[in-house]
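Take a protein:
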Amino acid sequence: MSDQQGEQLTRAEREQLEAELAELEGPRRQEIVEAIAVARGHGDLSENFEYHSAKNEQGLLERRITILRSRLQYAEVIDEEAAAASGVVTVGSKVELEREDGEQMTVDISSVGGVSPESPVGKAVLGKKVGDQIVVEAPRGTWRARVLSIGR
């Protein structure tokens, strides 16, 4: 997996993922271990819904921890000052768009709680400057817009 391409994150996004990982590896993991122990105390495990539910939740938690560790291991923290000075849309940009139908929309380009850089809109705006026209190839059809402003 050494050739895996990491995602770009702002420093704040990386810290958000690190905080989530710490929560999952600490308090959440302990809660599930305790829930499994309590459920085991209820007897026959083959028909113990609480036990199977807690074990399922444990599996989901461990998978999320694995995903977060991998994302953090391969992530690249972008230089936000350089990105802002470049005048183009990068990860961490807040982009104001005007669609061809006149509708205005603002999107945050982020892998953590925003419009993913891998989404149709993200792909269309990355690298664009104010005034540039974009074409978004979305599942529900293609649409065009113009970049009105780029902020952080």
Summary: The CA atoms of residues 26 and 136 lie 41 Å apart. DSSP finds four helices and six strands in the chain. The chain has two domains: 8-77, 80-151.
